[in-house]
Design goal:
mainly alpha, elongated
Length: 510
């Protein structure tokens, strides 16, 4: 394997070098030109060198970040650092290792006495009090041995000098485990935390939609099918439609059960039974997993097959698609003038057209939803596929879950900002309805059908298709119909603004 300096191409470099590389702003080439050439960067990594104008202690900032998740949008995504960062992943690994170790102490093995209450508290504190410095130490060990999970094991062993309960118990840390026994538990724990954050955001969007649905339940609006004038609805009913869809999507996301396994190298408890055949290892593994709030998967290869993750990512992507649909619809309604956008003092809409008030929040939301869904759908297609009993292609993919969740959070926040700026424009709504009396052709021909008037659809098609008709023209036609007088009066009283069916009632029911 090709080496980069003192660490392998597949292990993390020393933390100090990581910091220097993360903050690299530019590299001056031999002719004085600025370059970001990969070969130049690789040369610097091999020699552990730092550009002369670069401080070795300069930290990553919003201005030096490669990804907008940690740059432009860092304020929105910051909460995910506690969930999907390398630090968070290492902390979750420590927790999984410690819980396995504590459980082993209760199996009655003479070589590992049970941990008393104080020892259990002290061991769990290794995860609960896990610090950036602790993570940095694990990364230093990883750089030396080229294995991240083994580095966690060695880091825990380093605490033997201050934790008497670890003395003599060192070789039971990571006992009979494969790396994926630890990793899959850690990923499941982190995904549960990440899901909680996304659900809170989605519920905030849903609450906003529901509020608008109720407030605007009675506000009539011309519907458009195929972009053309169609049977009227209400503003509230259209928001209620989205709220109902999103509520179901939220329930599906929340209902996905996180699963994990702790059954060894190929899922058969081989090493466990070789070392202690008297132990019911499957029952112990189940208890450990379920005590962590996860479902136990009895049948796996070396990795938990990630089917539940695929289910979760697909569910999130479906919720995102609902919001993308909303973003595009509201963009269009703003273009029609159905909504105005509340102005912010000092804000600029265009660098050259001073009058512009662009629907940038919905556009931002749409773009980020697209990125998120591209990743989520890749996750759900890729992760359940592993060559034979395991390959490593899932590992690098799983490290990008936080990226997808980050784009989700940016999109949800942008959508909420856009919704908060919306103001209904009743004048534009009323004008559009008043100019569209032809939409009442549906009502008229349906009444004609009820009372046996010949060719009702065809007659209204001749009168209205592809042409405008005003109130006078439509009412003149109604007066010629051979229908009961009461039905005629009801049709003559009907207007595009009053022809809304159960829309208001349905809006209030969401």
């Amino acid at each position: 394997m090709r080496r980069l300096g003192t660490y392998s191409a597949y292990s993390a470099p020393p933390l100090a070098l990581v910091r220097r590389c993360y903050t690299l702003r530019h590299i001056t080439g031999p002719c004085g030109a600025t370059t970001s050439c990969a070969c130049d960067l690789a040369r610097r990594l091999r020699t552990n060198s730092v550009p002369s104008d670069m401080s070795a202690t300069e930290s990553l900032s919003a201005l030096t970040a490669i990804s907008p998740l940690d740059g432009r949008y860092a304020g929105v995504t910051a909460g995910l650092r506690e969930v999907f960062s390398e630090f968070a992943f290492m902390r979750a690994r420590v927790r999984a290792e410690i819980e396995w170790l504590i459980g082993l102490g209760g199996l009655g093995l003479p070589e590992l006495p049970p941990f008393d209450g104080a020892s259990v508290v002290a061991l769990r504190a290794l995860a609960a009090d896990f610090s950036i410095g602790d993570c940095a130490r694990i990364k230093d060990i990883e750089a030396r041995i080229n294995h991240d999970v083994k580095a966690v094991e060695y880091w825990i062993k380093e605490h033997e000098h201050r934790l008497p309960c670890l003395r003599g118990a060192g070789e039971f840390i990571h006992f009979a485990c494969t790396s994926e026994d630890i990793n899959n538990v850690a990923h499941a724990l982190l995904l549960q935390e990440g899901r909680t954050l996304l659900l809170a955001d989605l519920r905030a969007v849903h609450a906003c939609l529901r509020t608008v649905a109720h407030e605007q339940a009675q506000t009539p609006m011309l519907a458009r099918t195929h972009g053309q004038a169609a049977t009227p609805t209400t503003v509230g009913k259209e928001f209620a439609n989205v709220a109902q869809r999103l509520a179901h999507a939220i329930d599906v996301i929340a209902g996905v059960r996180a699963r994990a396994k702790m059954n060894g190298a190929v899922g058969n408890f081989n090493a466990h039974l070789a070392a202690a055949p008297q132990v019911d290892w499957e029952a112990f593994a189940r208890r450990t997993v379920e005590d962590l709030g996860l479902d136990f998967n009895t049948h796996t290869i070396q990795i938990e097959p990630h089917d539940w993750m695929a289910e979760l990512f697909d569910a999130i992507a479906r919720a995102n698609t609902i919001l993308l649909d909303l973003d595009r619809d509201l963009w269009g309604y703003i273009a029609l003038g159905y909504f105005r956008q509340r102005l912010r003092a000092g804000e600029v809409g265009s660098s050259t057209m001073p009058h512009k008030v662009n629907p940038i929040d919905f556009e931002n939301s749409e773009g980020n939803l697209g990125i998120a869904n591209a990743l989520l759908r890749h996750f759900s297609e890729k992760l359940p596929v592993s060559r034979w009993q395991r390959d490593l292609s899932d590992s690098t993919v799983l490290r990008n879950v936080g990226v997808a969740f980050g784009h989700c959070r940016i999109a949800y926040a942008a959508c909420l900002r856009g919704l908060d700026k919306l103001e209904v424009n009743p004048v534009a709504l009323a004008a559009d309805l008043e100019a569209s009396w032809e939409v009442l052709a549906e009502a008229v021909q349906t009444v004609m059908r009820r009372y046996g008037v010949p060719e009702p659809y065809e007659k209204l098609k001749t009168l209205t298709r592809g042409q405008r008709i005003d109130q006078q023209g439509l009412q003149a036609f109604v007066r010629t119909l051979a229908i009961p007088e009461a039905a005629r009066r009801e049709l003559l009283a009907l207007t595009p603004a009053s022809y809304i069916g159960k829309a208001a009632e349905l809006a209030r029911r969401c």
